[in-house]
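quick q for whoever's on today - can somebody do inverse folding on this one?? i tried earlier but teh output was garbage lol. tokens:
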């Protein structure tokens, strides 16, 4: 303890330097802040816009399928879409084959909101890509996609 830190504090200090979880979450928060700032005129948060984009690309879809696409759980996704349903941007309907299954899609207001937000999304995307550099983005996107697939496996088996 020559530097005044306990052994566990020293290990924690070393671990935080290389911790993938810490650095990924830190970068995610920073990128989200940029998107939220640029998207502010739309009234949408980056997380909400991402959700609208996925729903639009795959509609109609079940909450479970949306959760899988977001590498999240159905309960969290249900809670996240409630304000979007309340705002009239997402609509849910009962499946014609199985009335127990609900499917969601964008409403006409949701499609309009997405159309208004996408140019600002492009601005945010371009701003971040310019800051990071094109080669970093070309490396980062596939790496993040690979990392996201870790959530698709049953990590409880580890």
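ok took a stab at it. sequence:
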């Amino acid at each position: 303890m020559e530097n005044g830190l306990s052994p566990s504090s020293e290990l924690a200090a070393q671990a935080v330097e290389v911790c993938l979880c810490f650095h990924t979450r830190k970068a995610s928060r920073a990128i989200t802040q940029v998107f939220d700032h640029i998207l502010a005129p739309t009234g949408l948060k980056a997380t909400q816009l991402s959700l609208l984009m996925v729903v639009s690309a795959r509609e109609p879809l079940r909450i479970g399928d949306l959760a899988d696409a977001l590498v999240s759980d159905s309960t969290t996704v249900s809670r996240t879409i409630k304000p979007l349903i309340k705002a009239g941007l997402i609509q849910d309907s009962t499946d014609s084959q199985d009335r127990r299954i609900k499917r969601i899609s964008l409403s006409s207001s949701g499609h309009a909101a997405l159309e208004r937000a996408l140019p600002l999304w492009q601005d945010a995307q371009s701003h971040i890509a310019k800051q990071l550099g094109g080669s970093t983005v070309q490396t980062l996107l596939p790496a993040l996609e690979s990392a996201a697939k870790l959530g698709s496996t049953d990590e409880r088996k580890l």
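fwiw DSSP finds seven helices and three strands in the chain. also Strands lie at 61-62, 90-94, 102-106. so keep that in mind when u check it
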